[in-house]
From TrEMBL:
<dbReference type="InterPro" id="IPR036409">
    <property type="entry name" value="Aldolase_II/adducin_N_sf"/>
</dbReference>
<dbReference type="InterPro" id="IPR001303">
    <property type="entry name" value="Aldolase_II/adducin_N"/>
</dbReference>
<protein>
    <submittedName>
        <fullName>Class II aldolase/adducin family protein</fullName>
    </submittedName>
</protein>
<dbReference type="InterPro" id="IPR050197">
    <property type="entry name" value="Aldolase_class_II_sugar_metab"/>
</dbReference>
<keyword id="KW-0479">Metal-binding</keyword>
<feature type="region of interest" description="Disordered">
    <location>
        <begin position="212"/>
        <end position="232"/>
    </location>
</feature>
<dbReference type="Pfam" id="PF00596">
    <property type="entry name" value="Aldolase_II"/>
</dbReference>
<feature type="domain" description="Class II aldolase/adducin N-terminal">
    <location>
        <begin position="11"/>
        <end position="185"/>
    </location>
</feature>
<keyword id="KW-0456">Lyase</keyword>
Amino acid sequence: MTSLSHPAPRRAIIDTCLAMNGSGINQGASGNLSVRVEGGFLITPSSLPYDETAPEDIVEMGFDGSYVGRRRPSSEWRFHRDILKARPDVDVVLHTHSTFATALAVHGRGIPSFHYMVALAGGDSIRCAPYATFGTQELSDQAVAALEGRLACLLANHGMIVLGKTLKGALALAVEVETLARQYLHAHLLGEPVILPPEEIARVAEKMRRMKYGLPPDEDAAPEDTARPREG
């Protein structure tokens, strides 16, 4: 019997999909997830509930569209393949039909920089890609364009896509994007929110980068931001 390739990431994909549903950002068998591996990527199968998915059901694909496994790959495999090909800086593509992000997407609306946490998605906005039929090359092309310079986008009348280096990071970003979508929709109850300028989002992004890597604060940091451990 041939041993299963990439057993650890297969199990991690299933665990992350179950966490997606458990967190409320996805429902049933909707959404899909892929992880880069040597020579291609692993992707969730088509139309199989996550709580019924076994490691053997995760499909291994090549960037030429070929696949091996006992299941067919997700119908959205094209945008997973094309995003991973276009973005060597990421290893995970996560797609969900989360409620609030989808509510914005059905209006063709992205998420502007109404809150500084938008910077987590890689820019001063989370774009919404124009509508295209699911599973098509047109949708893939629209998604790749909307994700240029970004780690997240919405898909009109569909849902969201987020990118990451790790499954944990991608899931955390998906939860954050859904939170931002919820906040943005609620803020609209009081009128159009104030939008932060691009230069502020760039400053926030740099502060976040320095915090992530444990670097000293920037030169403009307030005195309390330069605190250091007491000696002795």
